[in-house]
Amino acid sequence: MKFLVVDDSPTMRRIVINALHSFGYNDVVEASDGQDALAILYTEKIDFVITDWNMPNMNGLELTKAIRNDATFGTLPVLMVTTRGIKEDIVQALQAKVNNYIVKPFTPAVLKEKIQAIVPNA
Amino acid sequence: MSGALDNEMKELLDSFLIETQEILDTLDQDLMQLESQAENFDLLNSVFRSFHTIKGTSSFMGFEQITEITHHAEDILNKLRKAELKVNAEIVDALLEVYDWLKMLLKKAQAGDLEPVDYSKTMDKLTKIGHPDAAPKVVAAAVATPSTVPDAPAPPPAGSPTLVDSILNDKTFGTQGDYFTDDELSMIANAFAEINRTMQPSVVTSNPATEISEPLAVVEEISSIPAPEPVKQQVVAAAVPSIATPKAPEPITPKKTTTAGKDTPVPDDKKAAAAATETTIRVDVNRLETLMDLSGELVLGRNRLAQVTQELMQRYENHDFLRELQETSSTIDFITTELQSAIMKTRMVPISKIFQKAPRIVRDLSKEFGKDIELVLRGEETELDRGIIEELNDPLVHMIRNSCDHGIEHPGEREKTGKINKGTLILDAQHEGNHIVVSIIDDGKGIDPEMLKRKALEKGLITNEQFQTMTDRDAFSLIFMPGFSTAEKVTSVSGRGVGMDVVRTNIQKLKGIIEVDSKIGAGTTFTIKLPLTLAIIQGLLVRVHSEIYALPLSAVVEVVNTDLNQIYSVNQNEVIRIRNQVFPLIRMDKVLKTPVADTDKSVKVGAEDTLENRYVVVVGLADKRLGLVVDELLGQKEIVIKSLGEYLGHIRGMSGSTILGDGRVIMILDIEELIQAAHTITASVWQQQG
Fold this sequence. Notes:
- The structure holds 2 protein chains of 2 kinds.
- By secondary structure, chain A is α/β, with parallel strands linked by helices.
- Chain A has one domain: Response regulator (Rossmann fold, 3-Layer(aba) Sandwich), CATH 3.40.50.
- In chain A, about 45% of the residues lie in helices and about 20% in strands.
- Chain A is built from 5 helices and 5 strands, in the order βαβαβαβαβα.
- A 5-stranded parallel beta sheet of chain A has the order 2-1-3-4-5, with helices on both faces.
- Chain A is globular and about 30 Å long.
- The N and C termini of chain A lie close together (about 5 Å).
- By secondary structure, chain B is α+β, with helices and mostly antiparallel strands.
- Helices cover about 50% and strands about 15% of the residues of chain B.
- In chain B, the strands form 4 sheets. A 6-stranded mixed beta sheet of chain B has the order 10-14-15-13-12-11. A 5-stranded mixed beta sheet of chain B has the order 2-4-5-7-6.
- In chain B, helix 1 runs antiparallel to helix 2 (about 40-60) and helix 1 packs antiparallel against helix 4 (about 90-110).
- The chains are: A alpha/beta, B alpha+beta.
C-alpha cells in the first residue's frame, strides 16, 4: 500500500511518516501542498492520501474535492489531519467527502485505527 | 531499539526547531505588514498558517506552552479571517507579543530548558481581544462525551449516499448551541461511514466488524475536539460557501518608494521563500569554508599560470603551441573567476536579514517615544557574506535605535521648525564595486558639533586646544569614543554608555569604514562601507622602494599626488591637508625600513629625501583616516589573504601575506595597526590646525 502524505510543514510530514513506518508502511511519498499532491497523483499510483487541511496554494479541502472529481482516482481514501475541530470544519470535510478526520495531536495508535477503519485490510 | 527511537526523536526535534525558526523569521514582518494591509487576505492567511503550523507541530513535540499561546493567537486570526474582528494596532501588538514569547520559548526549547514562562499578561490580552463580551465559558455541558453518544442508528444501504446530502441540506443542522448535539454527532459519524462505503464498497461490506467500530471512532474524535471557546452560530450556511472564497489580489509589496529613485523592486518574499523550500538544502558551514579556502588556492594557481604563460609568450613569440597554452590559461582564468564568485555566493545572505528587523524596532520605538516615523528600506536584496551580516547586526540595530531616539524629533518639535510631522528613517544598502555601502539616513535634528565638543571637553576626552581647533568632521567622530554619550537624558533605548564605540569596534573588525555627516536641523547620515567578503579581497599594490605591498582596497579612501604645499610638520610628525581636512602622514619607507634598490633613482636616500613624485594613499578604518606615502601605484589585484603562520606569528603592521602571479610573496598591510600607530600623531594635529 502506497501512502501520499501532504503537509506544508516538514516536521508534520516527518511525524506522520515515522508513524506509518512504525506500522510497517514503508512506501510513502510526500507533497508540500495540494498542487504538489495532485501532480504526484497524476503520475504515481497512490493507495491512500493523508493530508493536512491548511496549506498554501491548494488546501486539503480543495485537494479532496479535486480528487473526488477525478475519473481515475476519484474514490481514493482521504484522511484529513488537522488541528481544526469546529463545527463548520467538520461539515466542510463531509461536504468534500473526506473519508475521515483526525485532530492533532494524535498518537500513532489513533492514526492506525483511522487508517484501518477506512481500509480494513491494510 | 530505544537508541533508534531517540534518534528519531532528536531528528524530529531538530526539524521542529529549524522549521519554527524559519516561520518566526518571516512572521514578525508579516505581522507588521498586516497592520497597514488589513484587507490583504492572502497575508492574513499566511499569518494564520504560521501560527497554525507551530501549534500543530508543537503539540506533537510536547511544548505545551507554545501550543497554548499559538492556539489563542490562531483563534484571533481565525476571527480576523471570518471578519468577526478587524485588524487594529491592539491586535497587532498582542500578536507581536505572542511572537516575542514564541521566540523565547523556542530558544528555551533549543536549550532543553522546559521551565514554563509566565505569559499570562499576553494571554489575558488575547482572551480580551478574542472574547470582548467576556462571556463565561460554559464548556462541557454541550459537549458530548463518548459514553453519552447513543447507539448509532443503522446506516442506510450502501450505494445511496443520502446522509451527507441530508446533513448538508439541513439548514438547521449544527445551528443549535456551540457544539453539535449528540444526534448530530452520530449523524456525522454515519455520514463518514457512508462516504467510506461509497468510495470503497467492496472493502467495507466485507468486514462488518470495522463498520461498527469506525463510526464510533469518529464520534470519539469529534467529541474530544479541544474547542474551549464558544463558536459563533453562523456556522453551516455561512461556512460552506467560504470554501470557494475568491483569491484575494496579490499582496502588494509594502516597500515604500522615495524620491531618490534608486529603489530596486524587491521580489515577493513570501513566494520566493515558498519556492525555495523545495530547492534548498542545508550545508554545514565548515564545508563551505573549505570550499572557500580551496577556491582561494585556485586563484593563486590561476594567477601563477597566467604569469608564466605571459612570460613564455614574450620569450617565444608566435609559437602555435604557446597560443594553445594561452587559450587554455585564459579559459581557466575565466572559469576560476566564475567558480570563485559562485562559491562566494553560497555564503551570501541578503541584507534583508537585518533590515527586516527594522520595522518592528521603529514601530515599537515610535510608540514608546510618541514619535511618527516612516521607515524606508532600500536595496534589501543586496547580498553580503554571512559572517559580515552577523557582525553587522548589532551595530545596525543600535544605530536604528539611535536615530529613532536622538535623531528624529517629536512631531510638535518638528512642526515648530517647519518640518512635516512625520520623520523619515532610510536604510539603504547598495553595491559599490567590491564593497557594500550601508547608509542610515534620518531627517531629524542633526548633530551639533559644538555640543559634541563641549561634552567631550567636560568629560575630559579632549583638551582645551583640541576644543578650540577641532573641525566639525572630527567632532562628529567624537561620538565613537568610548564612554561618550550625547543623550541629554538616559532612556531605555540609548544613552547607556555602550553606544557608538561598540558600533565602531564591530565595523573595525569587519575592516569597514564608517562616516558621519550631519546638518543641524536637516538630519544625519551614517555611511558604512564594508568589503563583500573577508577571505578574498581587492588589493591595491603599491611599491615602497623595491618592495611591493598590498593594501585592502576597501580601506582606501583616495589617492593623491604629493603636494609639498599641503604637507606640514607638527612636532616632527608630518601631516597632509586635503580639502581642509588634515591627516597624519606616514612615510612607508621609514616605517618599514625598506632597503633602497640600486636601480631606484627616483628616490634620494637619506634624511632629506624628497616627497616629490610620490603618492599619498589615504586609508581609513571606521572613522579614522591616515595618509601613507608610497613610491608607485602598481594597480589593483584580487588577493587571497594567507595568514603568516605560527612561525612568524604576528608582525606589527602586517595583517597577512599573499602570493603574486610571478610567485613573489608580498605582505598585506594592516591598516588598523598603522592607524593606531599614527594615533599619537593625530592628537597633536588638532593643535596646529587653523
